[in-house]
Amino acid sequence: MQAFSIRTIIGPLIAVVVGMVMVILDSTIVNVAFPKLQQEFGSTLAVVQWTFTGYTLALSAVIPLAGWMTDKFGAKRIFLTTVALFTLGSVLCGMAQTIEQLIIFRIVQGIGGGMVTPIGMAVIYRLTPSHKIGEVMGVLGIPILIAPALGPVLSGWLLDYVSWQWIFLINLPIGIIAIALGMKWLPAFPQGEVPKLDTLGMILAPLAFSMLAFGVGEGAVDWTSTRTVVALTVGASALVGLIVTELRHRQPLLELRVFKSSDFTRGILLLWLVQIALFGVMVLFPVYLQTVRGYSPLDTGLIMLAQAVGSILFTPVGGRLFDKVGARPLALIGLTAVSAALFWLSHVSPEAGLTMLLLPLFMIGSGMGLIMMALNTHVLNSAPRDLVGRVTSLTTAAQHVVTSFAVAGLTGFLAYRMNEMTMNVGLQSIAAAYSDTFLLTAILAAIGISLTLRKPQLLDSAVPTQGHDTNK
Question: From CA 438, how far away is CA 446, in angstroms rounded?
């Protein structure tokens, strides 16, 4: 029998990576374009950021469907279909005439791309022996971390030398390549019995997540406003209903029973804190570089590349070390580096040299490289193996939801701090508002250091593989 190596699954791995790169790239490719989109559509940052938040919320809304859709139609067919829909949404974004249209078409993108990552990760996980999971996930983790970091570079070049429309239209050739590779290399797994669709969960999940994200964003400016109170009330009510529904359903969209594992719970909480820190920088720092420091979009993208370099160097290292030492030491070292770098950024003055920007960005990328795939693998290993497909959907959806909360909340907090400084509208006061926001992300990342991890104690799978709603 041939020994396993990366070459054994190189075809499916490349197909999945290309699809994931395209989807993940669009998580940050608009960030550098925020100032341009504000100018192009005559809008505010609080409105323009919904091109990001709406996209990530749409991702999270359909991700839980990945398990059911895979059971019914097969992983290969759904992977190819969603890549095609994402590509169509990208073309529509490039044709948008108003900011409202762009937000709507970004939601279409999110609906198309939401299942690509969880299905792709589940396919590779099923093709990989358990003793090689860390190494393979380390390779797979490179696009997950690098694509968001490279997005600003590509976006900056297109904004400076082509047009803003091409930050979306560029997905057309990438999407065609991903579909061609997927048709050739992705295996067709045997399909099991298709569970009943959790319709109520499918309705409550996007309602809860979108309302809570909107409420968090509004609350960062004014927690007592009518819009904030209504949004949080509706979102919280829908969330309670969602939790009750999912716990009573034998084949829920979101497999919440895995939270019985304290290892899983600690791991996913730590992942959420990492997501907040990562995307707090990925979304707001490019805007800071252009509005406070006066850099062009391309220069901004090149500066953000320092984070990608750190990820490139340390993501494979994190994957290999995970197989030897586990997630705990990697999380401790990585989070310490990220927290220190964010604290550093919060104290950088508008006159500071370029090195004072590049070094903390490199530290953040390096820390994330050590952390992300180790934590993702730790979380997967904390759940029953036969539920990996559904747990992947849960963890990926949760990360996108938390990212939406983070961006909406941090953008709102930034607007609030800027409004408080309206009596002193100079560059120093604007820079101070950004510094306060970066300090907040540093504190949140530091909190994660207190969440200790241990080697997962696997749960016995108590969730039936067949059957429907227990209410019947």
Answer: 12
The residue to which tokens 């909406």 are assigned: 408
220 pLDDT higher than 90: no
- Rounded to the nearest 5 degrees, what angle is found at the Cα of 301, between the Cα atoms of 377 and 366? 35
Rounded distance, CA 210 to CA 403, Å? 12
8 A C-beta contact, residue 31 and residue 152: yes
- pLDDT at residue 387, rounded to an integer: 64
One-character DSSP codes across 93-132: HHT--SHHHHHHHHHHHHHHHTTHHHHHHHHHHHHS-GGG
CA separation for the pair 351, 426 (Å, rounded): 14
Distance separating alpha carbons of residues 146 and 21, to the nearest angstrom: 9
Structural contact between residues 279 and 400, judged by C-beta atoms closer than 8 angstroms: no
Q: Calculate ∠ Cα 122-112-184, nearest 5°.
A: 55
Query: Each residue of 397-450: pLDDT tens digit?
Result: 777 778 777 887 888 888 788 777 655 556 677 888 889 989 998 988 888 877
Secondary structure (DSSP) of 129-150: -GGGHHHHHHHHHHHHHHHHHH
What's the predicted TM-score (pTM) here? 0.76
Cα–Cα distance for residue pair 291/25, rounded to 1 Å: 23
Burial 30-62 (b: 16+ CB within 10 A, else e): bbbbbbbbbebbebebbebbbbbbbbbbbbbbb
Rounded to 10 degrees, the C-alpha dihedral 310/313/318/321 comes to: -140
Task: Dig out the tokens for 40 from the structure.
Answer: 């192009």
Say whether 305 sits in a helix, a strand or coil: helix
Q: How far apart are CA 188 and CA 307, in angstroms?
A: 37
88-97: list long-range contacts, CB under 8 Å, 24+ apart.
88/112, 89/113, 90/26, 90/168, 90/169, 90/171, 90/172, 90/175, 91/168, 91/169, 91/171, 91/172, 93/165, 93/168, 94/165, 94/166, 94/168, 94/169, 95/165
Nearest to 344 by CA among 331, 357, 330: 357
Burial of 459: CB neighbours in 10 Å, binned 0-12, 13-18, 19+: middle
3-state secondary structure at position 439: helix
Reading phi first (left if > 0) and then psi (alpha if -120 to 50, else beta), residue 194 is in beta
164 DSSP assignment: T
Residue-wise pLDDT tens digits, 145-155? 667 767 888 89
